[in-house]
Amino acid sequence: MITKKGEETRNQILEASEQLFMEKSVSKVTINDIVQRAGIAKGTFYLYFDSKEALVWHFIDTKLSGLNKYLAKLDVEGYEKEDIERIISYIVFFLKKHNTLLKLMHHVRFFTFIGFHNMESKSVNKWIEWLTVWIEKGRLKGELYIDNSNFMAYFLVITIHEVLERAIIEETPFTIDEASEELKALVVKLLK
């Protein structure tokens, strides 16, 4: 069990690393940079994280935990038509609340450092799995006319991610709210 002082130290490390990640790419941030910014000894860093990669994964897991919990519930809930808009609304709400996370992950090249394949196998595949189960429930209920639930889940995760990421990092002429409404309409059409 981590003590209150230990939690404060871990948070110092996370805050220092987040600040540094905002300043330069993940691959250029060193453990020495992090401990200097956090004001701790290098050995203290290793009490909390085995490596910089472990720190980066902890950072990602911590930031995405709310989204993961929400999407995991799809596995146990039944399919309802209203869920489509509710799911996209929640994802948009989450991303707006944590928009610096997406900007940070995009601009400092998290995926270059950890490898997109690693991110896919750790998080993206779970999202696809949960959506596949949910879509399959709708298909079996006779409300969705999809031949391949897994393909559609994969397509939805990639599409939603790309559109919303580009809106958040301002690479489109659309705001995230405008993109959200268009996505809802598009996904409803795709699934019907």
TrEMBL record:
**PANTHER family named in the record:** ACREF/ENVCD OPERON REPRESSOR-RELATED, ACREF_ENVCD OPERON REPRESSOR-RELATED
Q: What are the GO MF terms of this UniProt record? A: DNA binding
UniProt entry keywords in alphabetical sequence? DNA-binding
Q: Please state every residue range assigned to the domain named HTH tetR-type.
A: 7-67
Which parts of this chain does the entry mark as a DNA-binding region?
A: 30-49
Q: Which InterPro entries match?
A: DNA-bd_HTH_TetR-type_CS, Homeodomain-like_sf, HTH-type_Tx_Regulator, HTH_TetR, Tet_transcr_reg_TetR-rel_C_sf
Coiled-coil residue spans: none
Tell me the Pfam families matching this sequence. Answer: TetR_N
> Which Gene3D superfamilies does UniProt cross-reference here?
Tetracycline Repressor, domain 2
* Protein name, UniProt field: TetR/AcrR family transcriptional regulator
Q: PROSITE patterns per the record?
A: HTH_TETR_1, HTH_TETR_2
